[in-house]
Structure formats: C-alpha cells, structure tokens
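Long-time lurker, finally posting.

We've been working with SDR family oxidoreductase (Allobacillus halotolerans) and I want a structural starting point before designing mutants. I don't trust myself to interpret raw outputs, so I'm hoping someone here can both generate the structure tokens and explain anything notable. Sequence follows.
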Amino acid sequence: MKVLVVGANGQIGKHLVSFIQKSDDLQAKAMIRKEEQASYFKELGADTAIVDLEGEIDDIAEAAKDVDAVVFTAGSGPKTGKDKTIMVDLDGAVKTIEATKKAGVKRFVMVSSFDTTRKAIQEAPESFAPYVAAKHYADEWLKDTDLDYTIVHPGGLTNDEATGKVTVGMSGELGKVPREDVAQTIFATLKNDSTIGKEFQVISGETPVEEAVKSV
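Top reply, 14 upvotes:
Generated this for you. Predicted structure of SDR family oxidoreductase:
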C-alpha cells in the first residue's frame, strides 16, 4: 500500500513516514510545501510531492493519483491566526478530501482534534474555538463522503519518548500522548480495515498500539 502523507513535514507526519518506510508492506509519499524539506524524506527512501495545501484541488489530486491511501495530518500550528486555521485545518482538509475522491482513492485517515463536537466548540477558549470549529466541519465533510475513512482524535500532544502503549475510544477524558505514539496509531490504523467508518480518541495508556487499534 502506498500512502500519501499530507502535512508530512510536521512532527507527527515525519514519525509516520518513518514508520511506513521501515515496514515491509507500506510505502510513503510525503506531501510537502518546499523543496528544501525533501531531503529528510529522500533519505528515508520516500517519494515526495511539492504541493501547497492552500493551492488547487487538482494539484493535490495529482499528488494522490498513484497512491492507495491518504492521511491528512496537516495543521496550521498554534502560532498562526484564525485565517490560517480556516485555510489549512478546514479548507485544506476539505480540498484534500475532494482531491482524494478525484484521484479515485478510497482510504482516508484524518488526524483531527481531541473533541470536535458542537459542545467542544462552545466550551473552548476564545483563541482555540476557531481551530475546534475548523476540525468539526472538516470531520463532518469527511463523514458525508463514501470514502473508507477513519478519524483519529489525539489528546494533548507532547514530544515525550514514545511508549508504544495507548488508550483508544470515545471516553472524552482528555489526556496527553506523545506525537510518536500518535503516528504509530495512524500506522496501525492504515493496516487495519476494521477501523474504516470509525473515529476514536487516543491518549497514553497501557495497551500496545496494535492491540488497542484492533479493539476499535
């Protein structure tokens, strides 16, 4: 299976591409914005596609034309304003979904926010609410398609060393999780068709990642 990782230059994206390239049955294609970002992925043996997520659907579709699955793990980041949140986390996600359909790819994994319910939008701090709203509507758009989707809702992200153990489900109890463990969870999700049509939250826990994902 060849996987287009959108937002590959992000921290989760880099971990995910590394996991994929170390596997025997998956291959990564890293979608990045700048040529100077390509060396990291080329050293891993991954293909690259230079595409601006704020560009056209056709450009993203061209990057997806030779893959079997798409993972959206792009994000505007905490230091950007509401404009970038809309353009990347909402518009970029929706364009990627539409490009995936246009390219004839069925499998799609969305990396979302921990809680994207309407209640979460209403209860979020003013500075965070636009991000939750963007993720909410991107998730809803995906669920309205006929794609074989999975939505992964990570808890509070850290750069701690991975444990390889998580808790998954929809308990709503916020916890932290290393980015590397999130990437491993996405990797396991791609390999497990039982996750299709489902969404789940992931935080640190006591269950090995593969076992946890199989329980979804």
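Before you design anything, note these points.
The radius of gyration is 16 Å.
Helices lie at 11-22, 38-43, 57-64, 82-102, 118-123, 129-143, 179-190, 209-214.
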